[in-house]
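Box 3.1. Reading complex inputs
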Amino acid sequence: MTSLSSRDTALVDAAEPRVGFTVDGKPHTLRVPPTARLSEVLREGLGIEGVKVGCDAGDCGACTVILDGEAVCACLVPAARCDGVEIVTVEGLAEAGRPGRLQEAFWRRGAAQCGICTPGMLTSAEALLRRTASPTRADVEEALAGVLCRCTGYAKIVDAVLDCAADATTAPAVGAEVGAAVGARIDRLDGRAKVMGTDAFGADAWPEGTLLVRVVRSPHHHAAFALGDLDAWRRANPGVVAVLTASDIPGRNIHGVIPPLADQPVFAERVARFRGEAVAAIVGERAAIRALDLATFPVTWSALAAVLTPDDARRPDAPLVHETRAGNVLVRGLVRRGDAEAALSDADVVVEGAYTTGFVEHAYIEPEAGFARRVGDRIEVFACTQAPHMDRDDLAAIMALPPDAVRIIPSAVGGGFGSKLDLSLQPFVALAAWVTGRPAGVVYTRPESMASTTKRHPSAITVRIGAKADGTLHAMRFEGTFNTGAYASWGPTVANRVPVHASGPYLVPHYEARTAAIHTHTVPAGAFRGFGVPQAAVAQETLLDELADALGFDRLDFRIRNALTNGAPTVTGQVFAQGVGIRACFEALVPHWRERRAAARAFNATAGGPLRRGVGVAGMWYGCGNTSMSNPSTIRAGLGPDGRLVLHQGAVDIGQGSNTVVAQIFADALGFPVGQVALVGADTDLTPDAGKTSASRQTFVTGAAALRSGAALRETLLLRLNAGPDARLSLDGTMLRADDGRRDSASLDLAGLEPDAHGFVFAAEETFDPPTSPLDANGQGEPYAAFGFGAHLAEVEVDVELGRVRVLALICAHDVGRAVNPTLIEGQIEGGSAQGLGLALMEEYIPGRTENLHDYLIPTVGDMPRVTSILVEEADAHGPFGAKGIGEQVLIPTAPAILNAIRDATGVLIRDLPATPGKVHAALAAARAAGARP
Amino acid sequence: MQPFAYRKIHDVAAAIAQGAGEPNTVFLAGGTDLVQLLQDGIARPAGIVDISDLPFSSIATTIDGMRIGALAKLADVADHPQVRAHYPALATALGETASPMVRNMATTGGNLLQRTRCLYFRDGVSSCNKREPGSGCGALRGEDARAALFGASEACVATHASDLAVALLALDAEVLVAGPAGERSIPVERLHTLPGDTPWIDSDLEPGELISAIFVPRGAAGWAQAYAKLRHRASFEWPLVSAAVSLAVVDGMIEDARVALGGVAHKPWRAEDVETLLIGRELDPVLAREAGEAATEGARPLAGNAAKIPLLARVVSRALADAGGLP
């Protein structure tokens, strides 16, 4: 008999009921505490870590198992009542150690991106298929309605389940010829573990005896605090090993993603600046930590006056969040070209509007999790992250260690979308492991994750845009205030990126955009897919519709007329000779626009009920990589004496697919089959710095480094084999061959060669840093080496009585330069547009109020329409094989396209997001009162 | 989670005795709400009596209606052919409740007795008279977008979140209760209480009393019914506002009507004035609209929940239109 509490032998409760049940065909008998949930027992008692926990509240469905034939949330099932039941987990879906049919279909379809929801999706689908062998699409959507996915937009998941209907088949795997991996829909190279449920996320694969860390956080927006007798409290709580506070930090109690502005303490000292800020961490045996009543923790709070909005924060008498930042201003941003004010006055038509958006939560299904262990005088951290080398450097400073004494091993990352760029749990577990000498880990609770980690910046934006009667955009003024919360995080990046992008992908000769990031006593706002550009695009793109209407132009045609082209200056004065694909994106939408608008008009003409249909479009552009800053990636690759071809791939794959895409690029540059490439990393000990996974830079920047690395390795090999540049390289065991078709192939046995320090007999290491130039005082310069472009068309149906909006279709055209893996790109488009739909219609985080996944709503499968992806390939000269970034591009045009479609359907424009039924209804009522007839 | 004694009991009388005899003991059925309340430290019972094995899970047609066991799973009730055939409002309400997984776990009795979703009750720390009597009502001057429109008090503005209860109220259902003093039945209308100055009390049940079954009278089976619910996303969300209607229509004339509103009060809210308005008239879009407006009579909004009022009117109209087959 095993016991759940075996790892915490001091705390075994003799009153624990004994239960026997079958899991994946194997019988188990164990004692379980009455408080234990089935999810906990399966994971910790039986080691079945394929069962994922995303919310512990029945809201996300990641922990779904099949219990006596029914899909249930294991986190809501008391384990004590499971006597005699039969349970199937994701691990039971495999067939003889290989992916089962459903798992294979998920892999093939690209239905698993980050993989954290995959086990719950698979078990929910399996329960359906056992009940209904040939389900309809509606059946599948209904069965999956309780499993949240933040990456995929659900379409590929539904398709994968339908592939497993009794009368359907799964497509065979796509093979890629040598030199043709780029462009091929190959299966994700890291997909097997994701569909099998064996990928190790931050909460998985902890060493035996890992201590648990629990963080004590401020319950106030702004408060002074005093800690009491921590030693006495620790002694009074058996099983607690250590209590950590600011005074335990060996190095500096400050971190931040932008070093000159780093301002966030690991533990607050004397004053906590937002609700959810850490003030202490308790380390101890798992059962003891779980049983703690934090109400007894010796801390006394004195609430202080708090400012929660930029308006309040800018009042003359407002308390300062940071003494050194006058007016609570973190930074300001500016881009100015021409004379916007003067030009607006000589425009023929000017439109203007004021817009607001709230905090938006990333809502990845994996809450922050990981563990650290001390290895001699080094510390190793295994945790979810998007930026291992940045983590390493910040953590080294906190721990007063040299950077090479810190090893960051990114776990599989269950979604990031920007928030896992910042340090979160890493300092707590590192410090705990350092102090106690034992491995120490933490899994944030869902409310803790939501309360303490970064959000999308709330925005207040006013825009004026003017055009000439001939339909030419003439001038634009943009003013944006962003609530950056208590600490800097990526606030400066948002403030600097937005002015560069707020024009949209158009030629705007006279332009002025000003931004300010304002501190408040709220959770820090940081990076979230688009860095402020989605908020700006809502204002700019909806005003373009009003402008087109005022001038009497077709809304899409108006955009095409004004779209940037090769050779035309951007608002920062940058001129691209090539690679500007926005016009092609708009043009790709033209037939759909005509067809859908005609259909919507026809529907409305005959609609007797409350439903009205409308169609909207919006465009976008987004610079790949850091703004006017160096952001190199380095890729190392080599051949071992055993004939193993290894790619050190340090670009963290958070589900978007960099493991696969970077390998595809590398394989083609080298001239080997992609299937022969073995991936190592990411791991700061093993992989060179490939930068952070953000700013849509991994395909573009790291991919370019991989291209160079592959080409360099190829050149070395060809030289050694004395073969021509077109020779075909191959490996047979340890024998390397080059065949250029003209004479006998040259060959070399790698086994006899002396390996280098990395174990390679031939190696290459190459770096790519996209060329940019600094922006001057007016924001003029070359901020990016390339932009990605795109345009979305949304068709919506508005219930004008209830204010409810249903998106019927999204058609998304994106200029990706070169589609390295179309399946993965479609996955980005479908998933990013789901987040855009959430931004438009339902998502708003209220600090202290919506800290869970039932009060904070993200789209479910039923909220997503069919998404059609149109891939435009306007190759970029810097991009590997012409490829550009796609990760953030995909979210930006969705919300404005939906808002434009609502306006098309009803005549009302919602300028305060999200467009909930209450707001839509109120706007319609106001329009009716004003005499309009929606 | 605070430690507690756990017992699984297979005998009704013993369960009642445990529930009545031990102070601060709660019954655990499907667990979808209680497990969460325990985890969040909102429920802190000394003992838990697991009643999931009591013989209360059958769904049966009787001579005078339907008897739905209190331990029947929501999914099983929603899929039951007799329910679908005769009580479409009930089937719709259950089909739109929570998620498929939760419906596979949650019971009808537990659904009726779920605690409020008020953010201030659920966060475990804010002022909340329901959770911490005397601590005040945080929602009253806080995030009140989902707060009650009817029957609230200074002490509590929380709403009841059940879809099922609203449909049952419109169907004139009763709950059958077993307790220390024997069995009794309570009309759904009287099962839940208004907050008054005792908002910590949600229902009329005495300590030790258990819901054993729900009885839906046969009369309702012949009535035109519908359940309409408004929420922000397509699935898995409690109602912002909802309405269940049940109409006895003879030769086009409404002879009798029951109208229940959800998401607007501490209990499923019966709109008797709307019923009176409907009776004796012929259902058409104009009447549906008029009835919707009438349903909002007497609504007392707070600072941030007035947006629910017009939506409630439309939802009632929509439910009537659906029931009457209007466009």
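In summary: Chain A has four domains: 1-173, 211-306+365-415+419-452, 530-621+782-929, 633-768.
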